Amino acid sequence: QTGILDWYTILSGVTSATFLLHHGALWLVAKTDGRVQQHARQAAAWLWFGSIGLTVIILTASWYVQPLARTSFSETPWKIILPLAAVLSLLASGYLRWKNKNMPAFLCSGLFIYFVIFTGAAAIYPNILPGLNPEYHLTIYNTSPGPEKLTTTLYWWIPGILLVGVYFTILFRSLPAVISASSEEDH
Were both Cys, which of 3, 110, 112, 184 would link to 89 (CB 3.0–4.6 Å)? Predict the structure, then answer.
């Protein structure tokens, strides 16, 4: 029985929170030192193991819960590369953290999240929001606003995403490489 808080929705929420907590802990490991980094490193280690376990559980559950995923992966077998890339990225983030390569570990964690999202989208494509009855699926075809509106959106999106890129470039370049707990600078 599906609902607003069924077991799969709760599992997805806990899994997503664990992935993001792991990613945030790796950010703290990469950008701090001292006790903060030490605690973040311990948290990242535990969250990494949790992420591995939850990845296996959510992939298995998704395979059984979402028939579109089974169909999609059997019809286009190349898509198996996506969950494999996700798992490899997660394993790499743990290995790099263990080797004290903090920023590469953080970047691999980001790749992991990217590949998890991409895997989910590819698994149900061309559906955007599947329904219980296939005639009620929302797809890329029946939800498209039309070429003229897509063109208008693209004209706004390109400069908007460029501004976001410039903003984050300025933001991250203005931060110190490592934020020290003993630093007396204003941050």
Answer: 112
Nearest Cα to 140, choosing from 125, 150, 154, 151?
Answer: 125
Please enumerate in sequence order all residues whose Cβ is within 8 A of that of 33, keeping only pairs 6 or more positions apart, or say none. Answer: 178, 179, 180, 181
State the burial class of residue 22 (Cβ atoms within 10 Å of its Cβ: 0-12, 13-18, 19+). buried
pLDDT in tens, 171-185: 989 988 888 877 655
Give the residues across from 179 on adjacent strands: 32
Which pTM was predicted? 0.87
CA distances from 20 to 27, 48, 178 (A): 10, 11, 21
Q: Is 58 helix (H, G, I), strand (E, B) or coil?
A: helix
Nearest to 95 by CA among 165, 26, 19: 26
C-alpha to C-alpha distance for 87 and 51, rounded to whole angstroms:
10
114: its two tokens? 């990217």
Report the distance separating Cα 140 and Cα 29, nearest Å: 40
